[in-house]
Input
Amino acid sequence: MSDSKYIFAGTHYSREFERLLVIEEVFDPASRRRILATGLTTGWRCLEVGAGVGSIAHWMAEVVGESGKVVAIDLDTRFIANIKLSNIEVLEADIRHNLLESHSFDLIHARCVLIHIPDFQVALSRMLELLKPGGWLVVEEPDFAVARAIAGDEEACQSMERVNRAILQMFASKGIDYSLGVKLPAIFQRLGLQQLAVENDTPLSSGGSGMATVMKMSAMQLAEKYIATGEATYQDIEKYCLFAEDPTSWAIYHALVGVIAQKNVN
Output
């Protein structure tokens, strides 16, 4: 039986806060560009799913202005509970089960959310239900299947490959599709979404880069879960982290697929 609990649940407050800040630094520029491609403007009502530390929610609130509104929903609102902006509402709830009004949002954004939900179809259906006819959905999800070491210390490369296998096994044991991102376009097509735009970012990252740092921080927090798969050891985790710090190392840690689509007006 799969364990559906969020993999970062119960992590140390300050370490998780720091990890989320680095994620924002690495991924926010592309997320903002994709969101702006929908025509986001003043007066829009937006939903940020899995708000994290709240950077995208804050930014959207600035764009939509006082005549608009942003609802930031998350299972864990510890990092955004104290937001005081008048046009941001913080909601601690599950996107699959909430009391939000149907057909009430012009735009819904989610980044690295669906991959953590075994029944992500339920979450996606709920998002579509919450969208107004003609509303926009921007979803960004990773594909971990492409992860591999490219260059670096040979032993460290081997440890990275073992940790990569542990990551895939951890997701699989939870009933989660670790390559969900690359499948999003076809899923959106089957749902009848329109104006489909797809981007597949697969950065080749050196040690010490933002992407490498994010994955190192994740490995440090999830070490016990990686080791529990039987695919990696403590020594592998240590070498993986050193590899991620080494400026002469190169790797693909994962791809991030961004999909922009519009709900049918009919």
